[in-house]
Amino acid sequence: MFWYNLIPLDVLLFRDAKPFTPGERAWASSVFPPNGHAIAGALRQHLGDKINFQITGPFFCYNQQTLYFPRPLGFVGTTPLIPLEWNKKSPLHHVLWDEQQPCPLSRPYPKDKDCKNEEDFDQKNSKYRQFLPYNIVKKYLDSGKISLEDWEIEVDGEDQPWEIETRSHNALLEGTRQVKDADGYFVENAIRLKPNWSLAIGVNKEIETPTTLRLGGEGHRVILQRGDDLIAQWDDLQQLSENNFETVGKSLAYLITPGVFERLHDNNKAICQAWPWEWKLAHTTNSNQKAGQLVSVATDRAVPISCRIFSKENSSIPAPQVFAAPAGSIYYLEKPQGLFQDSGEGTEKAKRWRQLGYSELLWVSYKE
Questions:
Q1: Choice between 340 and 297, residue whose per-residue pLDDT is larger
Q2: How many domains does the chain have?
Q3: In angstroms, rounded to a whole number, what is the distance separating the alpha carbons of residues 21 and 65?
Q4: Which of 145, 174, 230, 285 is deepest in the core (most CB within 10 A)?
Q5: What is the pLDDT of residue 347?
Q6: What is the pLDDT at residue 226?
Q7: What is the chain's mean pLDDT, rounded?
Q8: How far apart are the C-alpha atoms of 227 and 4, rounded to whole Å?
Q9: Helices within the chain (DSSP H only)
Q10: What is the pLDDT of residues 177-235, one digit of tens each?
Q11: Are strands 185-193 and 27-28 parallel, antiparallel or unpaired?
Q12: H-helix or E-strand containing 2?
């Protein structure tokens, strides 16, 4: 796997999955960071349409030498959350909840001795790191914890490494100063990365660098630069994750890229959910059910992903939308369980999603 930095030469445009036609809807929404389809499209345009890639990322990178990952969503502020099933002493343990769904989450009980310090820290700090550097993630995989000081922002951009620039577009009627009724006015959001920030990707192809790629809409370009310093960081995290996966006992699966978990039902309609379909709930509601490993889930709003496919007439058309679990989602399991996509048991479509960098997990051993 070769690692590269994507350094923008200007703003970037990545429209969301909503249909947009100037004149019908005047606001073109944007999504960032880009998904694996956008990255693969830029690489294929540069190297050749028939080339297939194995992609890791994209992730944010600071000074082209430090990888950053989305904050785990299993925290509220600086307080970690744990499933009620694992929190037997909690006063909430006896509440009623729908056992056909993942177990509710609660803060640790009894309160940790540092709880007061946490509350003081939360009151003094209105912002926390929303993206964690490599060394903090490595500590998280190694110890299962993130300390108070690890949440403090030390570098501008750790709360959000980009800024949104709103740009309006007007077209005037010939010979007048009036805006056209059709296609005359629309607004779109452009993305500008903050100074010293870039995107980083791993690709299983060696590409001659430095070079430029067209990335996103309107032909905006980025510099593709080798990032050999990132190889050791990724290998370290992968080794720790694999060691935790081999450890027997309660585990957390930390999703670091959007997770696409799609399934066809009897009516041939695809349904997406926030966790892998092969992970069955550890708690059962009747004797006919077989208990699985999944106890609970900490996640957020789904991320809509829309790409393009070739029709029977060999023309490019919009593909059906897919809704992905957001990066940072945390899955609590009684013991580690891999994905069908990684074991060779998944469908060809699911394997293609993995090849494009979706559903990347890091494993954390749960510490009481």
A1: 297
A2: 1
A3: 40
A4: 230
A5: 73
A6: 96
A7: 86
A8: 5
A9: 36-47, 115-124, 134-143, 229-246, 340-343, 348-355
A10: 555 555 555 677 889 999 999 999 999 999 999 999 999 877 789 999 999 999 999 99
A11: parallel
A12: strand 2-8
Q: What is the pLDDT of residues 310-330, one digit of tens each?
A: 777 777 777 778 899 999 999
Read off the pLDDT of residues 293-313 as tens digits, 9 standing for 90 and up.
999 999 999 998 887 777 777
Cβ partners under 8 Å of residue 112, min gap 6: 118
Token duo for residue 275: 């966790």
DSSP 112-148: PTTHHHHHHHHHH-S---SEEEHHHHHHHHHHS---G
Q: What is the DSSP string of 353-366?
A: HHHTT-S-EEEEE-
Per the structure block, which two tokens stand in for 323? Answer: 């809704």
State how far the alpha carbon of 168 is from the alpha carbons of 27, 158, 165, 242, 255, in Å.
9, 28, 10, 48, 36
Residue 153 lies in domain? 2-365
Query: In sequence order, which residues have a C-beta less than 8 Å from that of residue 259 and are 6 or more positions away?
Result: 274, 275, 276, 324, 325, 327, 329, 358, 359
For residue 61, the one-letter residue type is C
